[in-house]
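Example record used in the benchmark description.
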Amino acid sequence: MRLEYLDPGASAEDVCEVLARCGAAIVRDLAPVSLIDDLLGETQPYFDAAPRGQDEFRGYRTRRVGALAGRSASFRALALSPLALGVAEIVLRPFCARIQLTYTQAIRLGPGESAQPLHRDDEVYPMTKPQGGEWAIILMWAASDFSAENGATRVVPGSHLWPRDRVARSDETMPAIMSRGSLLVHYGSVLHGGGANAASEDRVGVSVNYGLGWVRQIENQCLAVPPELARTLPPRLQDLLGYAVHGRLLGEVGLEDPRVAVLGASLDEVRAYEEARQTDVRRTTLSGYA
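Model output (C-alpha cells):
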C-alpha cells in the first residue's frame, strides 16, 4: 500500500475516504508559504533555547518547541485550517460532543539524526480505541520540504487495520515526501516515525493533534494559553483549547462554563455560539459569539 496525495482543493470528505483505506493522506501545498515563514520566525527564539539530545525517541540531533498556541499567532491560524478541522470533525465527532486541540509541537530534525522508532500516537491512552473510531487525528505540516534524504516522516499505510502487536517490515514503510506548506494527516492508530536525516539541513515540521473532547489533552492547552491570552482569541480556538464544557459537566469552573467563569463571556453569547456551532460544527469562521 502506498501513500495517496490530494490537491489543495480536496474536501474533508475526500481526505476521509483516503484515510479509511490507508490511514494517512498528504494534501499538497495547503498552507501559504508566507504563513509558514511567519511561524518559523515566531518560534525561532524558542528553538534557540531548546535542548538537543534528549533521548532516542525525541532524537539526539533534534530540537522541539511545544505550547505553540500560546507562542505563535501564525500557528493559531494554522490550527484553524478549515480542511484539517473538517477531517477531525468527521472522524472524531461520532464519539464525542466536541473535539479539542490536544498536542502541538514544532520539530527541527537535524543533520545526522537517526530514524525515530515507529510508534502510534494513540499509545498514550492506556485503553482500546473506540470501536470503529479513533482517539486522535494527527497532522504534520511541512515547514520545509520533506524528502527521503532529509528525514521525511515515515508512515506505514494501512497499519490502522493491523493487530496492535504486528511489526512493520521495512518495505511497508513509506516516506511522506512533500513540499513546504503541504500536510500529512493520519489516524492516531497509524504507525509512523521521523526518518533519518542524511542531508545537510534541518527538516522542519509542525505537528498538531486533535482529539476526543472527553480525554485528557497530551499538552495542557489551558496552561499553554492562559486566560489573559485566551480572551483575545476567536471563540472557535477558545473551544479547541479546552475553554468550554464537554457535554453538560466536563470542564466546569465553579459550576459555570469556563467561557463565562474565566473568559468573561455572557451566557447569551455562549448559547449563541453553541447554536451556530451545532448548525455546522466544521465552520472555522465563528470569530465572534453573536
